[in-house]
Write a structure and sequence with these properties.
mainly alpha; 74% helix
Length: 121
Amino acid sequence: MNRQSIFILSFIAVVLVLLVVGNPYSDAWFLKCPLHFLTGYQCPLCGMQRQLHALMHFDFSEAWRLNQFLLILYPYFIFILLSLLFPKLAASRVAKLCNSNKVVLPLIALLLLWGVFRNLM
């Protein structure tokens, strides 16, 4: 395993531990969304820290309530992360497709649409 992989895994481990022991609802040291702070609108990723906190505590209904679209995308994000860590997986056709513009650009467009839609609900 190379240094980049070790760094990524270490960073993820630290974040997950902080999400287990900390509480994004009450602890002031968790990051706040600048868009929400400045405008009151939720960005497409708003609620991600609280959602991961809920998932780490097996509160799936709260995770769903916080950001439905993002919850659906987590398997994709996990696969992309795994393909970064494991070169053999990155060489697969599925990984190449997931990293291609055919998939990434529509996902970005959907995320932006989700950001608009969730503020209209």
